[in-house]
Amino acid sequence: MSTADIKKNAEAKMAKSVEALKGELQKIRTGRAHPGILDQVSVDYYGSMVPISQVANVTLLDARTISVQPWEKGMGAKIEKAIRESDLGLNPSAQGDLIRVPMPPLTEERRRDLTKVVRNAGEDAKVAVRNLRRDANEQAKKLLKDKEIGEDDERRSLDDVQKLTDRVIAEIDKLISAKEAEIMAV
């Protein structure tokens, strides 16, 4: 293993941490409708629990309403029940085959709570990135100890990993502040 491999490996893992954070932030509900909100809701489909997106079309009707169009006639009631029983606080209403899911407006207190959740998710992502930095630095120090690289290469590797970490943490901060602004926008 070389210092380039260590950096490439750390970079790939840090990118996965950022992607995980983006996925986590998508689940956090803002005042606006987003089809991804229903991704974590599962519905009973012939004895197995599957995401709603696998049994219905999930689209936006307008900025505050999600529409769910089941692919099978009998699934409408099950989907409506699954959405109502989820912890999202949504109240769907069926209109023939179409299920409308209006997004209730957020209160000021709820918005503040959601920004705390966003900050915690961001902090968790930063901790994961810092742990990856530590692992990469330990690998570089091990290579130095095993005399596979010189001290200059080790120092350069540590600097590269630190620059990478700084860049990724700045990206995480940018994602967090954008999501907070989105939540606090009325």
TrEMBL record:
A Pfam family recorded for this sequence: RRF
Domain Ribosome recycling factor: 21-184
Gene3D superfamilies in alphabetical order: 3.30.1360.40, Ribosome-recycling factor
InterPro entries: Ribosome_recyc_fac, Ribosome_recyc_fac_dom, RRF_sf
GO cellular component: cytosol
Cytoplasm as UniProt keyword: yes
Location relative to the cell: Cytoplasm
A GO molecular function held by the record: ribosomal large subunit binding
Similarity remark: Belongs to the RRF family.
Job of this protein: Responsible for the release of ribosomes from messenger RNA at the termination of protein biosynthesis. May increase the efficiency of translation by recycling ribosomes from one round of translation to another.
Name assigned to this protein: Ribosome-recycling factor
Organism whose genome encodes this protein: Roseateles puraquae
